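Retro notes
What went well: the complex prediction finally ran end to end.
Inputs used:
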Amino acid sequence: MALNAKSQNLPDGRARYQLGTLLTGPFAAVGRKVMSWVGNLGAASIFLLLALLTIFRPKQLPKIVEQIYYIGASSTMIILLVGLFTGMVLSLQSYHALVKFGAQGSLGTLVVLSLVRELGPVLTGIMITARAGSAITAEIGIQRISEQIDALSTMRIDPLRYLVSPRITASIISFPLLTALFDLIGILGGYLTGVVILGVNSGIYFHRIQASVELKDVTDGFIKAIVFGVIVSTICCYQGYFAHMRTDSHGAKAVGLSTTSAVVLSCVLILVADYVVTSLLI
Amino acid sequence: MDTPLIEFQDVTKRFGPRTVLERVNLQIYEGQVTTIIGLSGAGKSVLLKHIIGMIHPDEGTIFFRGEPLTSIKNSQTAAKFAQMSYMFQNNALFDSMTVYDNIALPLRETTNLSEAEIKSRVMARIEQTELGDAVHRYPSELSGGMQKRAALARALVTDPRIVLFDEPTTGQDPVRKNAILSMIAEYQRKFGFTAVLVSHEIPNVYFISNRILALYDRTIVFQGTPEELEDFDHPFKDEVIHSLEGLQEELTGLYSRRQFKVLYHNQLKRQALGEAYCVAVFTLERLDDVIGVLGHDAAQEAIRSMGAFIDKHLGPIGGFSTRRRINEFVTVLPYSDVAECDGILKNLVGDFREQGVRSIWVGASKRTVSEQCVEFTVLGGLAQGQPFAEMDDVIELAKKQQKEIGRFMCTEKG
């Protein structure tokens, strides 16, 4: 290794400095990254708090309803489709595992608990991130780089109240509703595969569902959905809102990268939050 | 002088290590059109954003009617900023909203007016800005000029007392640039707001500005009227004004005022040697009627056509012309005494009646969708140039001699 001061004809002090930089460099880089993450986390938390404070201001209701339509109602088809096939494949895989133990009667239990506790909220969150979250980031990002958000400020319209607050509120309302829809259609998908195709008794399937699901399972699923709604909407709005402050790119490219970051971060944080919330609720 | 509406005292702004504004001192007075001129990247927009509170100074104080903004309570500051509107360089219209919704937005979000009242106010502004055909269209479906008008209508819908325009003519053709400036001047007169423009459209902004502020080397180096700027001796003039002004005026293709002055002084030297010359002044009268009926674009096209006609006829015989006011042209005819000039003018009048007036109308008609007809007149006046006489005095003398040399009349057939 060419760090020997004498071999490089460098003064001892400078060589020591280079060696120090080489050894501490990776730690410093990690430290900077962590500091940046913590800074962004703090900024996003304040961003969320300021947006939540404006939820109950006048003239918010029509905007919230509009966003519920856009984030919630417009996502119905994709949620139905994904929910149906998730239930079907879950039922298919579970049936072949259960049949080895002669426990195919427990198919309903397995399908419903998997859906209500885990798959429903997580997959709904990821699907809404892909469909509506990316669009939220792109829309707000474009408004930012084309000075539309500055225009709101000059008109004395609070951009957080006008753009962010309705989206977060709409997500908090839409995520649990879509999760419920996902759960229901998933159970139906499980029925189609398990009962109609594989021949499990219909009565046993529904009896097991009724017997095994408790109210806590449903409310825990909804709590998760609300947490995911807050995370996804905050991250997507935050990434779009500050698209102009990216240091790695500018303009349309910054909006594109912000959208990618928003989707990736949302999906990762959904899974992280899922573990944290589950461990808190169990 | 009155207390300034807005005053900067030693305002300094830095972005990181870069100082954009340094010890800026300026005054903006109520009811006037004030234009901030300077090269691109000089910090004009940053200065404008300080006025509306989007950027705060690192050092120095901004006064609003004599009160420092920092000492005013938050609620009062909000009330003061509510009197202001800002028109962005790229319009910043909401592209997912129609023109109507864009204009209605500030009223819907910041007032408690009923939808009927909002509609009446918005439609009034739409009518005033000639956007009647674009009410339900989206910004991307509009021409650049219409987008500017929509942005202007949105800026004016709250009846602001101060309107800030950030390079309102960027990216427009010469006719449209002048049309936008003319539109700003018209609305400023009509609604009485204080207008602050950022522009480098020299000399076009001189025609509409009461005061000019020159931003150079991070600070304001000149404050005064456009006329006072003519006598301002500073590197700013060579480096900025002369480079922006050029030798020819963009709209008419005639000499710029600076070039005209150079030629005029050469003529004075010749006259001292015994060569005669005269000065003719032409005015396009009833321009406001043309604007009212055909719109701003058509009015500017009429001015352009008139300038072209004068140059076409008087240029080949050695005459050199410039535009002195928005609708006024001055031509110097060298080597001619009054009798010769009178003959030249008579020829010109004949041509004006046969072709000139018609060509102005044809030019204007090209730039409008209106099928209405509007009458206008052209005045002309002549004066003999005197040795050592001030240019403005000879021009004024020629102006006093003005009489009608052409009139466009609407017949029943249109």
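What we learned: The interface with chain B takes residues 59, 139, 143, 146-148, 150-151, 153-157, 162 of chain A (CB under 8 Å).
What to try next: split runs per interface for comparison.
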